[in-house]
Amino acid sequence: MLWSVQLYSDLIYLEGPPGPAGPSEVRVVDTEGFTVASKATVRLDPARNESLCGVRRPPLGATWWSQVVPGLASELRDGRSLTYRVEARVGDGWRQVLMLDSGCRGTGRG
Fold it and tell me: Nearest 5°: CA angle at 13, between 10 and 15?
């Protein structure tokens, strides 16, 4: 999944694929195996939504997830190795997510 993080807050954005590979939910798991964040994804409509970087339209049905996750946000922002595991529910099972840096960073209202 493509990721982006706010520079001045701990808000993380993820954009996933459309179709059967698109997750219905994303969760973040800490080093002890505890879920520290979990939320359903939403489907994007290119007629109304922009992608992570705001310079292109997402494919029809691409998935979107955003949540505040302080520890993971710091690791992503600082370019450190991730100690958190990001997982996506696809169908009936959970899969570990390959995190792909979108190259974009949000500036929020900082």
Answer: 165
Tens digits of per-residue pLDDT, 80-103?
A: 999 999 999 999 999 999 999 988
Q: Where are the domains of the chain?
A: 2-101
Task: Tell me the fold of 2-101.
Answer: Immunoglobulin-like (2.60.40)
Give the chain's end-to-end CA distance (angstroms, integer). 26
Could you say which residues of the chain have pLDDT below 50?
A: 109-110
Q: Which two tokens stand for residue 54?
A: 């705001």
- What is the SS3 assignment for 32? coil
Dihedral, CA atoms, 75, 71, 66, 52, nearest 10 degrees? -10
Instruction: For residue 73, give both structure tokens.
Output: 């946000």
The b/e string for 28-66 (b: 16+ C-beta within 10 A; e otherwise) is bbeeeeeeebeeebeebeeeeeebbeeeeebeeebbbbb
What burial class does residue 20 get, using C-beta atoms within 10 Å of its C-beta: 0-12 exposed, 13-18 middle, 19+ buried? exposed
